[in-house]
Design a protein that fits this description.
heterodimer; A: 115 residues; alpha+beta; three-stranded antiparallel sheet; 14% strand; B: eleven-stranded mixed sheet
Chain lengths: 115, 861
Amino acid sequence: MTPDKQDVLYGSLGLMILKTLEALGPLHGYRIARRIEQISGNQLAMNQGTLYPALLKLEQAGWITSKWTASESGRRVKAYALTKAGKKQVAVQEAEWQKATGIVGRFLEIQEDAS
Amino acid sequence: MSRLRVFLSRLRGLMRDRYLDRDLQQQIQAHLEEATDDFMRRGLSYEEARRAALRSFGGVAQAREVHRDIRSFAWLGDAARDARYALRTVQRTPGFAGVAILTLALAIGAATAIFSVIDAALLRPVPYDKPEQIVSVHVGKTFEQRLGPSAVDIDTWRTATGVFTHLGMGRLTGGRPVIVDAGAPERLLVGTASKDFLEVFGVVPILGRPFTSDDSRPGSPLVVLVGHRYWQTRLTEAVDAVGRSVVVDGERATIVGVLPAGFYPDTMVWRPHVPPANMAAMRGTGVSVYGRLRPALEINSAARDLTASLTPAERERELQVWLTSLYQETTTGYGRTVAVLSGAVGLILLIACVNVAGLLLARGETRQSELAIRKSIGASRGRLIRQLLAESAVLATAGAVAGVLLTYLTLDAIVALTPLRLPANVTPAVNLQVLAFALTLSIITSVAFGLAPALKLSGTSVTASTAGRVRYSSALTRRGGQMLIVAEVAMALVLLTGAALMIRSFSKVLAIDVGFEPDAMVTMEVVPVDTNPAAQQAYYVELLRHVRQIPGVAAAGAVDRPPLDGSGSYTDAQAHGRAISIARRTVLPGYFEAVGLPLRQGRFPTDADSHGVPSFAVVSESAARAIFPGQDAVGQQFVLRNKSWTVVGVVGDARNKSPLIHDPQRPDLYLAYQPGERGPVGSGLTVVVRPVARIPQLAAQLGDAARAVGPAVIVERIRSGRDWFGDQIATPRQRTTLLSLLGGLGLLLTLVGIFATTAYAVARRTHEVGIRMALGARVGQMIGAIVLDAAWPVALGLAIGLAGALAVTRVIASFLFDVPPTDPLTFGAALAALAAAALLAAWIPARRAAHVDPVKALRAE
């Protein structure tokens, strides 16, 4: 019943979504998925379907909101946008991510030294 | 914060599940269309683009499943699905479900009913404000030798110690009934209360004022408080009841207040407690003393403080003050009955659980392929267990609902059967606690009977049952079923033995020789309102003359205390230099003929003996032997209470007390009723009539005669000797009936269990039976083989049950009359009955199975 921290906080997908929304403003699901794929240089083999549960979790945590609007092609789509809490969360998670990768990075350096 | 948000949003999700699912579907739809457009822009055909979009999306179904898990509480959805599925499963097998639910309903119903009685008896027997502060007070060297404190003690404790906020003395239910006259005379229970006595219980008059110390002062005008029921029924709830006057025991009294409902409802009138001046310092006068402890004062330290306030001389004699909490005082003596009843319903519940477990297990055999398939398509073992437990829960819930309904419908009857003397102001009811108890029971039972089968069945391996249908009942399940039979039979035997002991004991009570013939007589209690002794005697003599003229009346007499009624007046007679205790009764001629006491020597007194100052005496055989050893008692003279008496006859011994009271039989002495020989206030004589045969309307005729003779008279309790005797043995009858019912219920459930287990086992073996029959086995052999399968667990169960019964029946030893708790005859009978019934329960399905056509049996697969 609690947000799965491995997934949302330390897992990259949640942060990627938040970052995407921060950079581009409100977007619907397909656009978010495409953006993530593009940024990763299409190196991320992502099932786009997994996006929706992730979006739901973020929405439940109150970091994003959604509403039905029209896409550029005039299709009825659900657009997601950052909330105030979500904006703060981006900063928090970014810092945590940096810290985590920093720690892991240092481990990798040590291993290189030892070899 | 965020957790709470997630929780709340999931809670919302619960309500909007369907909406959210549609919402997701629309999003996926839009997503796929957008993606298809994109791929088409890159030059793919619509079909190719559509396929590519689906591929990059991944599994639509998986996404929806994960989404569904997140948006609300997954387990809740599972539980709901399990419950729906379980309901369908249960509906598909109405026979199985019916038996299971009925079994549980009977067991839970019995347990709930008994619990509601115990709840009333033990959990809320003292319905007063802060009852833990209320204590009864005694003084004595030991607790067993304790006496009620004196009026002087109370004054001392009130002034010299700070132990009590309220302390008072009184009689809560009075002693003998007293004549109260507020227009029509009647005999009522009249309690007494000193100042502060009712305040101890937090009882405040709803009208008027409580007693003050002035009310108890000798010589002050008599005032009374009336009980709520008296106010309702006699004073028609008049708001101006205060100030009215009633005659209490011949004395005019003014009503000063009305007590609230519920407080000792049988006590109709309360008068101020006035200890006689010469008894002010006397302890143990039969008056109750209750106090309310100062808040937060611990009962033992209060008792120490009070003991310290005794005089040095008293402390020298090692006297102590004993405090007993009202709760403890009220519930003392319930323990054993409560333990026995709880034990019995506990066993019944266990039997029911075992029973249903057996049914589930047997039925599980037929579900193995279903479970195996579920497992092979990905259901985890935990998931299967949950699903199977959901079925148990459905059964238990249905059982509990039916059981509570059963309790609700039968509670009055069960309360009437309960051998607990509950406080008058407490009535068992199906209340919240009882409902909570039933709910708890249903949860516990559903796990108790569901878990073992669920664990076992969920362990079914996929290959075992998909490879082919299971032909023969697996040895494992068969052994499981047999173990259940062992348990059931063992528990049933314990219950049955207990019930059988009670029945045997009760039959002995019924067969007891009381020395006279209660069945042949009719009794009527008559109290003339005129308390003038000469007038009373004249009244009774005249009444008996009238009664004897009623056609069909063979004999009529009167006595102050009928035999068996427990109360007794004893005289220490000096017989040749030694004192013996003799039960003394006052009689009018005709009494012996009426109760059917046999004449041994001399003659019965006649009306001629009643002229002037009657001085005849009659003694029982044992009294004759004790007082006049080696002599002829008839014609002997003796002096008692300053009067001279002449023995005219010797009669047989009669039981003075109820057959259940283990009291040594005492010799009886019957003295002539004399003018001036007036009993306690309001106590009349009981007229005993012996009709030649049953006379219809005799009761009405007796009442008419009593009212026709003389002026004002109170007539009470006209009843047949059979009813009257029945009242004397009410407690053992209640115990016997209740335990027999419980024992019978246990037996019934056990037989159903054995029957069902065998029937299922046999059904699974139809094919085997067919083969063996085809190979030439005889019907008898087949039946034998099947019954034998059930016989050894029954035998093992009987052996275990026998050991259990031997260990347990000691608990009811004190309930038994003239039967040892290990009575071999009773044990043998219970054993034989259960064995026979159990084998019959196995034989019926076995016979049916063995009589099937072998060809049909072989095709059955």
